[in-house]
Amino acid sequence: MDAFTRFTNQTQGRERLFRATQYTCMLLSYLLEPHPGKEKVVMKLKKLESSVSTGRKWFRLGNVVHAVQATEQSLHATDLVPRICLTLANLNRVLYFICDTVLWVRSVGLASGINKEKWRTWAARHYYYSLLLSLARDLYEISLQMEQVAHDRAKREKSPSQEPLGYSVANEETEWLQSFLLLLFRSLRKHPPLFLDTVKNLCDILNPLHQLGIYKSNPGVIGLGGLVSSVAGIITVACPHMKLKTH
Hints:
Number of strands: 0
Helix content: over 70%
Radius of gyration: 21 Å
Number of helices: 10
Largest sheet: none
Order of helices and strands: HHHHHHHHHH
Mean pLDDT: 87
Strand content: under 5%
Distance between the termini: 33 Å
């Protein structure tokens, strides 16, 4: 209970809970909508989803500052590839949160002359670029982990006292995919923060892909992806050691 209280006292923790609630409502309303007699439940779920979405905007108002700070921190990364990817990703996050703030100003009626669709498209585009760059960083980190796992495996295979591994690639031409997937699985299993970050970014990118018309998804897919991403985000906030670190 104390851990939950500390979690909800954090702005990021509350935002993650609101986000999980929003996408749960989206997923449930999509699943229940085809069934007769569920109209009232679906309507209540959609109203709750809309209310939670509006509430989340209040938590995101200060995120521009956090994104600027993250950009400054990423400039000090020792490895060139993460430094470039994270800096550009965080710059796009800054632009995304600026667009999001403008949309919030429009939604509360402070500036009615704002072109909502134009700013929404800009926000989705910068969010999409940010996630693409974050995924590029994830792929780079995964390649390093796979290289390390493959190197360790080669050392064990050369050791005369080492027992044979429980698998072998009998035919490289037909079993290369199995070998690759096994290596990928072992690499991610050894690095849970990298696994969480990759899953989160892959799930998050479904929304801007849909908004920009690059790849259309139904509300059920977007809701499920948002829920999985929110759970991953909750884990990283509740357990800071599960957040992917920048070296």
